[in-house]
Design brief:
- The chain is globular, with a radius of gyration of 19 Å.
- The protein has helices spanning 2-10, 12-37, 47-57, 62-89, 103-130, 133-138, 140-148, 151-178, 186-213.
- Helix 2 packs across helix 8, helix 2 (12-37) packs across helix 9 (186-213) and helix 8 packs antiparallel against helix 9.
- It has nine helices and no strands.
- The longest helix is centred in the middle third of the chain and has 28 residues, at 62-89.
- The protein has 219 residues and is mainly alpha-helical.
- It has a single domain, classed as Fumarate reductase/succinate dehydrogenase, transmembrane subunit (3 helical TM bundles of succinate and fumarate reductases), CATH 1.20.1300.
- The structure holds protoporphyrin IX containing FE (HEM).
- The site of protoporphyrin IX containing FE has 21 residues, from helix 2, helix 3, helix 4, helix 5 and helix 8.
């Protein structure tokens, strides 16, 4: 069983497919995360967001979901580092899987650096809200308001979210290619949906630091 997994991960096609799958699952997390965070805009001094945060933190399944999420992030990063290393080592003609459009080579150039910026943002983000859990759980809305009304923190968030936007704008196309989708009609449609989703997630997330930087909702 293990050797089957090892062989799958060490083959370039298997690795890319796994990277695509973990990436798509992470996009699923981002959609849910943004949907929950939009309650910050309820304009009720934080009542809706506080209720949401408390509901999430009392879910019995939360520890398992958090471990699964951490494994998804770590798996995705591990596969990205391994793939980037091998791409660098390979000669240009080793790129045969990437197609003839030249898109993938642009994507592979930007995917790694934007991924590094997202990771740096994520470490800061988990530090702000996850590692200071007690303060956060006592007053979730006030914690977010306090963190994001600081211009430096808000700027770091905006930078991280912009990197995420660029990363996501290529992610869907890459994932479809890695999973071997090449339907003449549906694949371009799915790519277009992926781009719209990337823009929606970027605008949705970035509106949060902008909102609090500009003053947010006073309770
Ligand atoms: C301005 C936008 C964002 C806000 C206001 C925000 C807010 C939060 C808050 C309040 C938590 C703590 C939840 C808790 O412990 O109960 C959290 C956790 C988390 N956020 Fe964000 N987030 C934002 C953007 C992002 C982005 C762009 C990503 C991914 C790139 C992300 C990834 C995570 C992860 C992985 C966790 C840990 C989840 C857990 O362990 O339960 N967040 N976020």
């Amino acid at each position: 069983m293990l050797s089957w997994i090892e062989r799958f991960v060490s083959s370039s096609v298997g690795r890319k497919a796994l990277m695509a799958l973990t990436g798509l699952m992470l996009i699923g997390f981002l959609i849910a995360h943004l949907a929950g965070n939009l309650s910050l805009f309820a304009g009720d001094g934080g009542t809706a967001f506080d209720a949401y945060a408390h509901a999430i933190s009392s879910l019995p399944i939360l520890p398992i979901a958090e471990v699964a999420l951490a494994l998804l992030f770590l798996g995705h990063i591990y596969l990205a580092v391994k793939t980037t290393r091998e791409n660098r080592r390979a000669r240009p003609q080793g790129y045969s899987v990437t197609g003839t459009h030249g898109e993938k080579s642009f994507a592979s150039k930007t995917m790694f650096p934007t991924g590094v910026v997202i990771l740096a943002f994520l470490i800061k983000h988990l530090w702000d809200f996850r590692l200071q859990k007690e303060a956060f759980e006592e007053a979730p809305y006030a914690s977010v308001q306090q963190a994001l009304s600081d211009p430096l923190t808000a700027s770091v968030y905006m930078l991280g979210i912009l990197a995420l936007g660029i990363h996501l704008s290529h992610a869907f196309g890459s994932a479809l290619q890695s999973l071997g989708a090449n339907h003449p009609k549906y694949t371009p449609a799915l790519r277009a949906i992926g781009k719209v989703l990337a823009v929606a997630l970027t605008l949705g997330f970035i509106s949060i630091p902008i909102y609090f930087w500009l003053g947010g909702s006073s309770s």
